[in-house]
């Protein structure tokens, strides 16, 4: 099991409105939880603007991550430029994607919209993209494979993004991660964080285990919350070491 | 006025807990609003882990931004490594900062904590840093100047981060921005986004103006919300052009 390499994800949220503080970025946190739950480690989350500066962000993401998930910038207006920025990042021309065009036409017909150039733009994707259906809104998403990376391009509207991610993950990320990481959490009374310093330092050498301690004391009764998370499944051993350190310092597991 | 260069900020939030989806990153949004309100344009927000990978993130931020604000990783535990990562990013050795040491000692005395090595670590900062007092918690923050960039290093606990940012901004960012950007917002009934496409395309050539349109229609009555934000103060002209386009397409300002 030690040779299992955990897939690495970067989440890129594109949009000036987040940078201007006009909109709270709830997409990134949701995607972090979702990716973690299927066993993919999120290594970076970037919010960058709807302009050329994001080309380098997307390019670096594709070079460095196994899974890149972008949100935002797929709509009909001029600042919806994600497909263009991605085509520049990948060095691939934009083309009208036939399946995306069908989706845009169908949605326009259902809702009685005209097929303006702005709406047709929503079907333009880098060559080789597979269109993803938007069941909530109108702008299609896309999946691209580039080198060893898979890129999932989602809309920015949370309800659209969530539905599309879950549907795409089922098809394109299945079997990539090994399911949710193991996770153990406990609080020990009667100790302070410093009592665990030795054990923590030892555990810090294993980068596949994430350990977080937090003081949870009240006056007269210190306490420490311990959280252990590992994608490689070795939570129990890490937890046992911390428990030993806690008990030998006089700690008592809360709830015992 | 046209030669005024808007200061650019990068916000870097360090912490595995956000990447694992354990904690919602509310710090980044708060800082984006705060920086915007003093006239500093946030160009990138990055969340990256408590490990060596963040060295390059911090280095790039310092090279590219006028203001870098980091949050997280200042506490006593082994995964609180921001000062180390920053020292690596800047190529500056860590030293015990005398003012930070005073702060740590004072806080330990007040709260009856022992001065363990883990606590003393909180006073280690890159050479040349100015320590920032933490009035809410125990870990000091820091301000560094590097090349033309100013770096503000804040704790991750929101209440500590907010207090420290506001105090530091008052001293170190005063006069850097020109106050809040102008902002105009209105909704026009009887038009769709496509009616504004020409005017929007025209406005998109001026990168100092951010214009966002959003459909706000109900069945039988389409409507478009227009938001104009500009750090350079030219909102009114942009808004007038959109208003003209909206009216000539039959739009009516909501509330008229």
UniProtKB/TrEMBL annotation, chains A, B:
Alphabetical list of SUPFAM superfamilies matching this protein: Molybdenum cofactor biosynthesis proteins
InterPro entries in UniProt: CinA, MoaB/Mog-like_dom_sf, MoaB/Mog_dom
Ranges where the MoaB/Mog domain occurs: 10-175
Protein name in the entry: Molybdopterin binding motif, CinA N-terminal domain
Gene3D superfamilies: MoaB/Mog-like domain
Organism, as annotated: Conexivisphaera calida
CDD domains: cinA
Pfam families: MoCF_biosynth
């Amino acid at each position: 099991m030690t040779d299992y390499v955990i897939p690495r994800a970067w989440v890129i949220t594109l949009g000036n409105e987040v940078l201007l503080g006009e909109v709270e970025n709830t997409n990134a946190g949701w995607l972090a939880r979702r990716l973690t739950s299927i066993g993919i480690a999120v290594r970076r989350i970037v919010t960058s603007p709807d302009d050329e500066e994001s080309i380098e962000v997307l390019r670096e993401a594709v070079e460095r991550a196994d899974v890149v998930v972008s949100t935002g910038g797929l709509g009909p207006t001029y600042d919806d430029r994600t497909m263009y920025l991605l085509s520049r990042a990948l060095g691939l021309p934009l083309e009208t994607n036939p399946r995306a065009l069908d989706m845009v036409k169908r949605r326009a017909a259902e809702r009685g919209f005209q097929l303006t150039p702005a709406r047709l733009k929503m079907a333009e994707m880098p060559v080789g993209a597979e269109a993803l259906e938007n069941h909530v809104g109108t702008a299609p998403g896309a999946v691209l494979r580039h080198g060893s990376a898979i890129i999932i391009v989602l809309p920015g509207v949370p309800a659209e993004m969530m539905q599309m991610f879950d549907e795409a993950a089922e098809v394109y990320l299945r079997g990539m991660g090994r399911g949710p990481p193991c996770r153990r959490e406990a609080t020990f009374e009667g100790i302070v964080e410093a009592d665990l310093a030795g054990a923590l330092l030892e555990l810090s050498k294993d980068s596949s285990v994430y350990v977080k301690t937090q003081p949870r004391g009240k006056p007269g009764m210190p306490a420490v919350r311990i959280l252990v998370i590992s994608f490689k499944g070795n939570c129990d051993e890490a937890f046992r070491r911390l428990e030993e350190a806690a008990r030998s310092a006089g700690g008592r597991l809360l709830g015992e």
